Amino acid sequence: MSKIEIENAEENEAVQEQTETFVNGKPFNRMNDFYVKYVFASRQNKGSALALINSVFSLEGTKEIVDFEFKDRELDPDRMGGKGVLLDVTGYCSDGTVVNVELQLRKLKSMDRRTLYYWSLLYGRRLEKGEKYSVLNRTVVISILAYALFPDEVWPEYHSSFAVLNTKKLNHKLTDDLEIHFIELPKWHKGDVEKMNRLEHWLAYLSPKTTNEERRRLAMKDPAIRKVMEAEKVFLADPNCITAYEQHEKYLRDMAAMKEYDEEVGWERGHAAGLAEGEAKGRTSGLMEERARLVLKCYRESMSAAAIAKLLDLEEAEVQEIIRQYADATDKT
Fold this sequence. Notes:
Distance between the termini: 52 Å
Strand order of the largest sheet: 3-4-5-6-8-7
Number of helices: 11
Number of strands: 8
Low-confidence stretches: 7-18, 74-87, 278-284
């Protein structure tokens, strides 16, 4: 290789470093569940969660919080029960405020009712039998969604905020205790980083459309972004973190393949039958087959039924039944 070719290669490598970070040849996904939890749900990085929450509050002129202590999620009785409740990042503030921040990648039905259900669990959890209602505190849910929740004709902006209001006088709140925010990522469009608000700093940091050079410019303006970029370097240098990160990326690919397979099988079988009933049965059959394949794959990697249920968002009893029905037969083939 000539000197000029070497210089060009070094220049290209430098440009690539400026525009994106790679993990094993693929662009680093900052929306990876494990990485998001590392940044926002680990005690060593709790300043990031505090900064993200306050960036949302700043849009409404709401009183910002000065501290944030994580709730011990391992002791959360609702994390795998009922309606599949898993509160992503939950914490308490010194003034009694309870805050939950959730990053939701999958589009779910009845998101409005689901959010109210989660909010009610958080709100009522501290009220013991016989206690006065005055012990209840302001409870805030912040849902960051990777999909559009409301049609543009209903609400075109990326941020919406809900409270309990008097419909006869909208500036009259019943209480300040209920506060729900939705951040719809598809509705946010990255502009000039110099003109972004604090919440948009975070959205830009997480966005795959933002270059590392733009992130560095944000870090120069916002100490919270600078700290999270330092945490990112620590994460990328840790082999254990990278292993967990790649496992979740593989899980996302498997889920995408399962959805594609389900749709393809459902269409083919339904089309062949020429009936809506055939299509429905085909879709259900395809989903069940792919679900069983993923369960057995995890089972052979020595994962427990409880761990598989959590990973695939299934009931543990369903996982155990799949293992019981298919494991022995599949192992013999």
